[in-house]
User: Fold this.
Amino acid sequence: MGPTGDVVNVIQIHPTLRCNLRCRHCYSTSGPEQRGELDVELLERFLADAAGEGYNAIGMSGGEPLTWKPLPRLLACARSLGFATSVTSNGLLLDARRLAQLAPHLGLLAISLDGVPESHNRMRNRAHAFEQMRARLDLLRAAGVPFGFIFTLTMDNLPELDWVAGFAATEGARLLQIHPLEQVGRAREYELRPPDDLELAYGFLEVARLQRQYREQLTLQYDVADRQLIAREPCRAFAGPAVAADVAADARLAALVSPLVVQEDGWVVPIQHGFATTHAIARLDRGPFRMQAARWKRERYPRFRHLAEQVWADMRDAPEHLPFTNWYAAITTASAHRPARRPLTTPVRLTA
Amino acid sequence: MATTRKITSNVNRGSAKLFALKPHDHAGIAKALGMARSDYEVKWWWKYGQPAIDLIQAQLEVNAKQLGPVVSQLMRLNGPTLQVSASCFPYGIPVPEWFRLEVNIRNAGR
Assistant:
């Protein structure tokens, strides 16, 4: 079990980094100049194997996934395999034709919203990006597609969350997610400041207040790791007792690592885009995923667990006024810096 | 390598415009967090570009002998945050040998 719990086992797919925008905070440095894209047949074969490994939800991201033509086909394939489906989009390319293609296969559309209109347009590097996005919400409502908004929290934009929550509730969104900015990709070029753990603590107070205010209309989700929760359930951060090698080899991959991320370069890595490929599970062009996954369980899973245990050991002790942190950023950064070593803990067997 | 970010109090914070609490008032912040925790809990955490999923639909093929234990296990997931429902379709004539289970798991906690 990982950070998304033991029921939802997620694969995030970045089929392309092509995007109609060039946002300042983009962690994958996506933009109009990007040309490469993944082959849909490779992805379909991958999904069939991944379903057998216990994954049950996909999130399409990018780049802007609406620029990837096979998107409806892949969503249909995913649905036929039993996956829940979601797409994250800037919303500007939505039109009636695209929605008609997507709606039958789409569980949730998440639209990025970075603050009040002026802030949103600045972050999106596009005048009127907000107004253009808002003009398309009528299409979503008419098509009956459930939608939500994703807000990126920086060091200085917490006061705008109140406006964002009000806007989301008024527009009929079901979900508002609040993610901490990650200082990678273009966010580093623009020197945007991610929230530190103190600002995450303040953010929690504001999210709790807004959830009370919009209790009946909107679900707010704050995407930070809670040290108390991990201390109670270390498996949420892949820490705690390791799984015996023979048990891991027989387990379904989703029981060992989730989320998975399929990058635009074909690498399948744990946890997050940009995770070090020394921990990669597979590459789509190197044969059946199930075979590569079996090899990863045998050879690389212990190193992944060791990395996760070290990250948790580094972050577990914090003062009482700093209970939250960005675990995804921590483990992704650590994956690139730590030498891969054998685990030190005594393996134990999984129990039913 | 420490993974906890360094805290700096002399920066412009968005929170400075919202809260009367000062960054150095650690006891005050901890008390406010404790009170807020009674209303709001971080149960899962996702990441940018990956919206939370609140409904899982799955199809399982279950051997007749395993049907009871599997359904019991699924139903035990039911609780304040998860709502589980399942439909069962028998296959095999005259005695069903296996069953197709269609399972819906809705996360009511979100």
